[in-house]
Hints:
Shape: globular
Low-confidence stretches: 1-7
Structural class: alpha+beta
Distance between the termini: 31 Å
Number of helices: 12
Strand order of the largest sheet: 3-2-1-4
Helix content: 55-70%
CATH topology of the largest domain: Beta Polymerase, domain 2
CATH architecture of the largest domain: 2-Layer Sandwich
Mean pLDDT: 92
Order of helices and strands: HHEHEHHEHHEHHHHH
Amino acid sequence: MRNIGAAERVIKGLSNETQKLLQTYVKEVKAAFGDQLEGLLLYGSAVRGEFLQGRSNLNILLLVSSCDSAVLKQYSPLHRRWSKEQIVLPLFLTEEELRRSAAVFPLEFLEIQEQHRVLDGRDPFIGFHVTSDRLREAVVQGLTSHIVRLRQRYVEGGGSDEATAILLPLSIASTIPLLRGVQRLLGRPPLSHSDAVILDVGEQLKLDLQGLLDVWLLKRGQISPGPHEVPRLFDRYLQATILVARAVEQLPQLEPR
């Protein structure tokens, strides 16, 4: 396994505290897995330059030689410790599984392929190819499922302002990757910054997506809607998501690449 030098592990936009935290995390994962660990990758907001200290999670992919119960169990004590530091449960994949999964979840793996950093080991995305022939289906399915879950979560929270103000920022984090999928379907280069993604998709589809943009600003802590504004924000966000889903249904599927 090739060792990644400390200089290579520096990730622009992350605080020194977070950088050191990741370095300690890598050491502990390597100690737990040994030669079974083939690669350790960071992806998501921390790589895109949108990581918010105390708000964002650190997303990890562990490339391992096998994924049986004995291997997985080795991570349990690490999870108990590191979940408190905003490191969510990693994706555990072998090389073969990664390549097979990309055919089933093209959007998710395009996201990781384009925005990741290797913290240790090798990069499985070198020479990696994700076909785009199922991309429109994946985006439509993702948006439709998202709309249904959003309504369910709203009911679970009793429609209270407090619960909704927690629900919406969590929801937009799942919506943005889908919007980058829309950019790909439109032949646009997927943008890293979420506000730019929302604005570009709205402009290209000729839709008012201010509801999505406002929820993104809420997630960033840049706006704080009053008690009477939260239900209206939910409705605008939901309606904007529905409009995007309907528009994507009309887009042609990309030719396989």
